[in-house]
Design goal:
It contains 16 helices and 26 strands. By secondary structure, the chain is of the alpha/beta class. The strands form four sheets. The protein has an eight-stranded parallel beta sheet with strand order 5-6-7-8-9-10-11-12. Helix 4 (about 130-135) packs parallel to helix 6 and helix 11 packs across helix 15. The radius of gyration is 24 Å and the shape is globular. The termini are far apart.
């Protein structure tokens, strides 16, 4: 590989100094020649890049190649990817697809093996991951991904223990996922070898986990945003944190940036740029053994060229000595995608709810959070069927099994979306974690139109506004597309715009929020393909309360 030379101001995070330098590199840093102790304000800056310490690429709805093209524009040179979503649908075939596609990406994508596939035994998914899977992939992964089954850890479930023991055998870090867990139960969880958590909602929760030996990943995604609440950690525990996006949609990235959003926020709050690079790069690099370049002689040539240290606008993103923006490889269009989708047609009768009492359990959504509440709805009419009540901000929530053509839809109700259209619905085949089809709607006909379009497309997004139907296909496992990221962002923005403007939905990220309403491991009340589930009691519950 030919040598390249850049003359610019250099940010040296190891000596905590800045100076004018000449950097000579090929795929590694060959030399860093200091030219002056004084910086030149007319020149750009050479700085290390950023790491996303935990991300589900599938949530971007993009292939790994397109995801990399998008986020490298904002300075992300590496990411620890958990292919949990596609593994739930397609198992090993899905994991293999992600790893193979990542080889053509313009940034360094590392993988952690999903630990909870299926996430629970209370819903239907397409595959299973266990210790034998880790035996197969242990040389290809840098960690065991988020262990959501904390009861299985605490009560020493044999399958969970086998997977944890396997990770320890290969000296792999084990990531956690325990919102709100504290005290003795947290001690047992950490004692099982789990070293991180990205589900902290409060500073006190994070401090307890750090005090007991965990690294806390501060998350700022499209739906779950914890940076404001956890920002004090940047002053009190800077050595014990990392940054992650977890789940982000493409329009959100193009509007707010990627890991760069943490940089913008922290710099505006007066955090030292040298301190900031600990969670941005150094801590994840060490914790996961990533080997990303940190701008030292002999390091891999991974760095950024930015305009200045205030706006931090990326001019170039160099990975392995190549300019990511110039060396992007177009995602190949596949003649056959990895997917599992049993197509069928639905009728209104499939989602009708006959009243059994006047009291109904309703999922109460909390905008910007993955957790949900439980609301008891007192029905004050004599109708035979339970219908949505827009005046009370209550509409239907439907989850449909995509793997079994004989399964009946599960129907519940949700409060807090703000939907005001009397004949509207929106839905997708992105429904954490099993990725059945989830639909929110105010009218049964609209719900059915939405369902039939998604099943016809074998996965994707859809919004119905009266007789108007807009949809986007996601042919890769019903989760992703290999279309250009900017085109996907535009299409997604259009569909989400209809949801907000025509249906009146008030949620910041309607699809992202609805996708987590079927996640049966996050409190409190959720709807899976087998019915309404009380996460706190960890059991199914009836939709209707007995009089």
């Amino acid at each position: 590989m030919a040598q390249n030379t850049i003359k610019a101001n250099l940010l040296d995070i190891h000596s905590r100094s800045m100076y004018l330098a000449e950097v000579i590199y090929d795929d590694n840093i060959i030399a860093i020649n200091k030219l002056s102790d004084e910086c030149d304000s007319s020149l750009n800056w050479i700085v290390p890049g950023f790491v996303d310490s935990h991300v589900h690429i599938e949530s971007s709805m993009l292939s790994p190649v397109e995801f990399a093209k998008m986020v490298s524009r904002y300075g992300t040179i590496g990411a620890v990817c958990d292919p949990h979503e596609i593994a739930n649908v397609c198992g090993d075939e899905g994991i293999d697809y992600m790893m193979e596609s990542a080889k053509s990406a313009c940034m360094k994508l590392f993988f952690a093996l999903p630990s909870c596939v299926p996430a629970t035994s209370f819903e239907t998914n397409g595959a299973t991951v266990d210790d034998k899977t880790l035996d197969k992939y242990h040389t290809k992964v840098v960690a065991l991904a988020e262990m959501m089954n904390y009861p299985g850890v605490i009560y020493n479930d044999s399958k969970v223990k086998a997977l944890l023991d396997c990770a320890k055998k290969y000296n792999l870090p084990i990531d956690g996922h325990v919102p709100g867990l504290s005290g003795d139960d947290l001690d047992k969880y950490i004692g099982a070898g789990i070293s991180t958590d990205h589900e902290c909602f409060s500073y006190d929760e994070a401090v307890e986990k750090i005090g007991k030996g965990m690294k806390v990943l501060i998350r700022e995604g499209s739906a779950a945003r914890n940076l404001d609440a956890l920002f004090p950690l940047l002053k009190s525990h800077i050595d014990d944190i990392m940054f992650c996006t977890d789940d982000s949609h493409p329009d959100d990235v193009l509007e707010r940036g990627h890991i760069s959003r943490f940089v913008d926020y922290a710099l505006s709050k007066g955090i030292s740029i040298f301190d900031l690079y600990k969670p941005l790069l150094q801590t994840p690099n060490k914790h996961y053994g990533l080997g990303l370049g940190e701008l030292r002689v002999g390091d891999s040539a991974d760095f950024l060229v930015v305009d200045n240290l205030k706006s931090y606008k990326v001019q170039k993103c160099i990975v392995n000595g190549k300019d990511a923006n110039q060396d992007n490889k177009t995602a190949s269009k596949q003649s056959k995608y990895v997917n599992i989708f049993e197509t069928r047609q639905f009728e209104v009768v499939d989602v009708a709810v006959e009243k059994q009492s006047d009291k109904v359990r309703v999922i109460e959504v909390k905008d910007g959070e993955l957790v949900s509440g439980q609301y008891i709805w007192q029905i004050n009419n004599r109708s035979r069927f339970v219908m949505p009540s827009l005046d009370e901000d209550i509409v239907k929530l439907v989850v449909i099994n995509r793997y079994d053509p004989q399964a009946e839809p599960a129907v519940g109700f949700i409060k807090g979306t703000g939907m005001s259209c009397e004949c509207g619905a929106y839905g997708s085949s992105i429904a954490h974690d099993s990725h059945n089809v989830v639909i929110v709607g105010s009218d049964d006909w609209a719900i059915i139109d939405c369902a039939n379009r998604i099943f016809e497309n074998e996965g994707g997004l859809c919004v119905v506004n009266g007789e108007e139907i807009e949809s986007m296909k996601l042919p890769i496992a019903g989760l992703m597309t290999d279309e250009d990221y900017s085109a996907v962002a535009d299409k997604y923005s259009k569909i989400q715009g209809i949801i907000k403007e025509k249906l009146g939905v008030k949620l910041k990220a309607p699809f992202m929020t609805s996708s987590f309403m079927s996640l049966l491991v996050i409190p409190s009340l959720k709807l899976g393909d087998k019915g309404l589930f009380d996460v706190d009691k960890f059991q199914f519950v009836d939709l209707f309360l007995k009089e």
